[in-house]
Amino acid sequence: GISNTKARLHRIDPNSRKRFVLSELFSQQVALTTTMEPKLASIFCLVMLFVARGWASAAPPIYKGKSPVVQAKYLGYYDGLNEDTVPYCNMHLAHSIADAAKIQALPQGKGHKIDSLLSLRSVLFGYVSKSVPFGLLPDYEQRWAAVAADAKVALANGTIIGFNLGDELVWNCLNTTDLVTAANAVRATYPRGSAIIWYNEAAFFGSPTKGHNSCKDAVPDYTIPSALDWFSVDIYHMDGQVDGWVNASVASFYDKWILPNLTSSQKVVLVPGSFGSNVNHYPNGTYICDNECYDKMCAYDAGDFYYKWAKASDRVAALFPWNWRGCPDCNGSRFTPPHTCCADEIGTVDQPLERSIWDKIGKDILGLV
Question: Angle at the Cα of 97 (from 265 to 127), degrees rounded to 5?
Fold first, then answer.
C-alpha cells in the first residue's frame, strides 16, 4: 500500500522517485477499482489521471529535446564570436565598440540579434608599479570617462548592452578593494537596468583550504561586488567523463559559495570547459585523457550544464564556454606545470562532439529547434 511505497522511496534515485510513485499509485488504483461500483471506479480513474498529469508537468526538464521554458537567455564563447559561431550564439565579448559592431553585422547571424558586452579590463586595470604588478590604474577615472562617452551611444543604439570587467581579476592579484571601486565606478555611470556588468573569477575563494591568489597572498576578505549584475567562476574538468561531475564539482560550488552571497537582482553565468588536449598526463607520462576523451567528456558536461542546470534555474543568465579558437599558450594538462613542455589547449572548433552540442544548445536558446 501507500505506506510501503513511502518506505521504499529512500532507496530510489531521486530522479526516478516521481515515476516510481506514479507506477505504485496506478497499480493500487487498479486493485481498488476491482472492488468498486462501476460509476465510482470511473470517477476514481479520472481523478488519478488528472493527478498524474499535474505531477508529470512539475517534473524537471528532460535531457533530450526542448523543454517548455528556456531560462538561460544567452550563449557566447569566452574568446568571442565569429562567422562560424554567430548562427547559434547571441552574445559576444567585444574588445572594442567597433568589434561589437563588426560581429553584429556578420550575415551568418542575421536571423537573430547579437548582443555584446564591452571588455574593460585594459581600461581599468594593468601594471601600476613593481610592488603592484596588476592593479587599478591611477588614471582609471579619466580612462573610464573617455570610454563611457562612446559607450553611451553604443548602448543607445544596441551595439552593446553592457560591460565585462575582466577575467580572474583577484586571482591575478588585484586588490579586492580595487575590484569593488572599479565595479562601483561603472555602476555609478550606468545605474542598474541601463547596462549589464559582469566579471568572471577563479574559484579560489570559499573553502578554508583556499583563499589565496596566484601571487600566494591570502585573500580573506573576498566578496562579490554588489554593483555587478552577473557573476561567474570557471571550474574545468580534465580527468575524463564522470556522471554527475557538473553537479558535484561546479553547481555545488555555486550553491555553497556564490548564490547565497548574491543580491536578489544578481544572476550567475556558467563557464563550461570546452576544449581538448593531447598531453594530459601525470609527470611520469601515464595516460589520463587524450583529445578524443576530452571531446566526449566536455560534450557530456555541456549537456548537464545546459539541460540539467541552466534550463532549470532562473538564476542562470548565460553560458560562455571556454574556448572556441584554442589557446596554444594555455596549459592543456592538469598534471603538467603550465607553460613548460605541454601547453596545447585545443579549441571547440576542432572538437566535433563539443561543437555539435553547443550548436544544439544555442539553437534551443534561440528557439530554432
Answer: 80
User: Residue 130 half-sphere exposure, CB side, CA atoms within 13 Å?
Assistant: 0
Bridge partner list, 316: 268
Query: What predicted TM-score, i.e. pTM, was given to this entire model?
Result: 0.80
- List the one residue out of 356, 183, 189, 198 whose CA is nearest residue 270: 198
Per-residue confidence (pLDDT) for residue 206, from 0 to 100:
80
Inter-residue contact 165 to 124 (CB < 8 Å) = yes
HSE (side-chain half, CA atoms, 13 Å) at 157:
9
Nine-digit cell string for 61? 526538464
**Three-state secondary structure call for residue 208:** coil
Contact yes or no for 310/270 (Cβ under 8 A): yes
The residues near 20 (Cβ < 8 Å, ≥ 6 apart) are: 5, 8, 9, 12
* Element containing residue 294 per DSSP (H, E): helix 291-303
**Cα(22)–Cα(48) distance, integer angstroms:** 9
Distance CA 272, CA 298 (A): 8
- Smallest Cα–Cα separation from 305: which of 364, 366, 265, 217? 364
CB 68 within 8 A of CB 342: no
Lookup: cell for 94:
567585444
Average pLDDT over residues 239-254: 95
Residues in CB range of 41: below 8 A, 6 or more apart: 32, 33
Amino acid at 119: S
Dist CA 78 CA 205 (whole Å): 22
Specify the amino acid at residue 287: Y
Please tell me the predicted confidence (pLDDT) of residue 62. Answer: 32
